[in-house]
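Running log. JK asked me to keep both predictions on one page so they can be read side by side. First protein, sequence followed by its tokens:
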Amino acid sequence: MEKNGALSNEELYEKISGSIDIKIENFVILICAIFIASIGLNVNSQPILIGAMLISPLMAPVQGVGLGLGVFDSRLTARAMRLLLLEAGFAVVTALIYFWLSPLTYASSEILARTEPTVWDAIIAILGGTAGMIGARQREANNIVPGVAIATALMPPLCVMGYGIYTRDWSIFLGAGYLFLVNVAFITITTFLVVRLLRLNYRTQVDTKMEHRRHYLMIALAVFIAIPSLISAGDLIHTEMSQQRAKRFVTEAMADYYVLDQTVDTGSQTLKLDLLGIKPANDELTRLQAELSDYNLGNYRLTINQVANNETVNLQDIDRYIDQKLKDKGREQAAPHSTDSKEPLQEIKKQLFLDHPDKIKKIELQRADEETGAPDKINVTLAATVDTESEQEIRAGLERLLAEQELTAVMNFRK
């Protein structure tokens, strides 16, 4: 019976149950999808991963398990579970072979992103499972099921498990395996609930006690699987909040310093800053440490690392350093300290630090004020040990850099 283009309950059952037969064609498609996804993970490309997820055949057995549980069809459940385990194992082995052959062995951000599942992944799986069953009921072809395949991302975690086996990094293997389990479990549970809401006929005689027992079992399974993801989500939120606070601390409290990178370690409660130029003196470090409490980071220990000197680092090295840090952390926007890295005064500031790394403590830029007509100002704070001759050398170097950029600015030097 056709109603608004939707399949009848019996047609829906036949459609899903008929899609979980073991077919050579599906395994060929699976191999293609696994290799594509592994390449996407290897070269850190989201578009390639999306392409792999679109052609992945993994959604069918997951929906089959949910349908079999929902209609008490133990034979269908066993068939779907067997196909799911077979395809998942096949996918892991195929990914292992790919990474064994690949010359690229580093853990890209796309790989690492699939090792720490949170409750958000469970929520996505629930919503995706609901949308997937709605799409499966449609008589006409639609893009709902492919969209669910992308959103729930069943394929990439299996590839990451293969990578974890190849590198013998069991934390990566277990993290990706848990993400796959979360996705499969909550799509299955959601499919089960939708099947019951649609009131598909049971395939065997079921009494009320048996029905309730299965419902309680599904609830217990959902809670048990979700607990680690809830803990992980709490850790993720805590880390993100600490990152934002540290970012504000660097922007405000350390505005006069050239901070190349910041790293927040919530485990050891350490804020590590990579600094270009001379390190702050002990009394300055004490003051900065005390200011952390103003940013709700009072329990954190501030450590500063001087990363550059004029013998080992040049301007191009710093640009590459910043780009690499941003790429490694998967940031889409430049950090505050590098926002204006190509602006002339910022380039001059950077070069002056490089030319005199052990003599300059701070360089502060004050932009020209169009309303008052005040010019650009460059305030240079020198180390206490800098003598008059060295100060004149630094002043001459700054004048030369300004002349090369055809700029004028008021120069103020102090200790």
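And the second, directly underneath as requested:
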Amino acid sequence: MPAPGENLRINGARLWESLMEMARIGPGVAGGNNRQTLTDADGEGRKLFKKWCDAAGLVMGVDQMGTMFATRAGEDPDALPVYMGSHLDTQPTGGKYDGVLGVLGALEAVRTMNDLGVKTRHPVVVVNWTNEEGTRFAPAMLASGVFAGMHEQDWAYARTDADGKAFGDELKRIGWVGDEAVGARKMHALFELHIEQGPILEAEGKDIGVVTHGQGLWWLEVRLTGKDAHTGSTPMNMRVNAGLGMARITEAVHEIAMAHQPNAVGAVGQANVYPNSRNVIPGRAVFTIDIRSPDLAKLSSMREEIELAAAQIARDLGLGIEIEPTGHFDPVTFDPGCVQAVRSAAERLGYSHRDIVSGAGHDACWINRVAPTAMIMCPCVDGLSHNEAEEISPEWAAAGTDVLLHAVLETAEVVG
């Protein structure tokens, strides 16, 4: 099957306009977005996306996790669809491009196919996965995890946010419970375009990251129990300080990650002490350790060492300790054929590129378990993401979407 011609390009101005229009929904306080999953803003963003899909002649389906699938028909009714997309939900202080570029870039690819009258043998589907971020309802990539059989749907529905609201109830409240059974769809392949969320591509002046692997991850929630006491009148040798335990475990995580270099990272990101009063020694601390590596042996070793170190620190300080895994996936090797389609597209289009390992988790990491999958990355300024200052250029967005278009067309097989 011949590859699409190198003169086939998306409409970069239209893509950028769509990104900016979506960014007006759920604005943040510092120029980014706060469009957390299953909020009213998420519902509004979904409506706008559906409106655009309807205008592009796509047929919308929604599954019971609220994931949206917009289908462009293929010439062969028996051919499995080629999927492309990402997510529209954001962090509480998120940027305008994380996830959103992958969804709206996919939509722009379809718009370009329509403009040029391109027909494919396989149907093409644009997807918006529910709750990729996992900030409001842990774990991350929740809907794609249910789709890939990693989580039970009832368990996902029972996830609660900080206010005790359940995922299933909030999905129903915003009106996006679909009727499709989750995971019933079969895929020929899936491609996900995403910003890098790291500094490598910009630093090396590369237009495109060809993602070959994804890091594995453990999220470990640690709960330390000590004794609330007055900071001024409690002698130092009589304190049972949960905050001190959290600080020492945080340092241990850093030291263990450094000892496993290269290709290993670890930090405490979410942390809370109670009663969180300036003159009370914390009697309780709850925090999440995030460790990642593309090497399964390293990932497993780090988890074991961290749990042993945390337990010893708790014993030394007289603290109670509980550690519960709240998120996990093994390292991912993306499909060689799909990866080659991305690499070939970048070369055909004349974009500079390099192979790269994704440092973040993505829906494609779960879908890779049930279908051939690959990812495309574009640079972001200073590697900054999960931050309202997250920024990319229109040129980077267009280049990534051009590569997405070509990789999908090659895989979906252009007809005529």
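Observation for JK regarding the second prediction: The chain has a mean pLDDT of 97.
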